[in-house]
User: Fold this.
Amino acid sequence: MQFFGGSEISPSPPVPTASGNNAHMIYVFNRNGVCLLYREWNRPLHTLNAQQDHKLMFGLLFSLKSLTAKMDPTNLDKGNLGVPQLPGQGCSFHSFRTNTYKLSFMETPSGIKIILVTHPRTGDLRDSLKYIYNLYVEYVAKNPLYTPGTPIRCDLFDTTLDQYVRSIA
Amino acid sequence: MGREVSESCIDSLLTEMVTTYCNRFYANKPELAARRIEAIGFQVGHQLSERYTMERPRFSDHLEAIKFICKDFWSELFKKQIDNLKTNHRGTFVLQDNRFRWLTHLSLDPTTENTEDPNGRSENKGAQVASMHLYFPCGIIRGALSNLGIPCAVSADISNLPQCSFVIRIKA
Assistant:
């Protein structure tokens, strides 16, 4: 089963339009709802304080995933709700779009959720989210100084993530 | 054709070895932990140098042995050679690797480097933990050289990651 490639970071997927600086913010949660990373590049409006914002985001996505799986007209069995599945298997919610932004989501089998909010005309970001997960594995999960379950404070991850996100639309 | 092993497995094993020795076996005695880890490296280096010098003639002098470490030995271990070798011709050699393979995934906490601690202790803590991971490769080098008949002392310097310098001091 070759979902996440070899030990080298997989080459980044082709960028649709590289106009840079179009991502608004990114959240990374683990399976217990701990917000491992929150970075924002462009967010003029803050309605809630940080804690509430993270809780709201986590709750929203948890509910959306359950709802979309339950409403699936093509699936015969009830499925295991709440259990992270391989992306692409079962019914998995991956993005929603409003007139002002697009939110892209990916959950890995280990329960790591990556949420990226960008401008509304962004294409399908599933491959980009997979690449960001690869960055997480290389620079956070394999970092000897990182304790799993704690907020991410790794220099290398921050810089490579920043560079990558600025290069996608 | 030898057997192969996953690199992630080796990385995780080495990380866990250092963490176990530092946090469980010798929890408040970093010196002892460092010594144990270096001793493990010594054994490993001893055995590896035996294997990799099987078909070679004996080395004529210290410089030849160090060059063997820089080129063949390092290529077998890390698939690349040492990038820069410096010596003072009086028994001290500095081996510089611009991208040390076992340190590529290591990065320090950016926030602690900004705190103003009068003793600079918070900054040193991150660097101290990182330096624990270097005792193993230092031991490997010391073991390899000792097997070639060159007793020495090896230390490492990571002032700019991922670049790493190993300083070998040959006992006269």
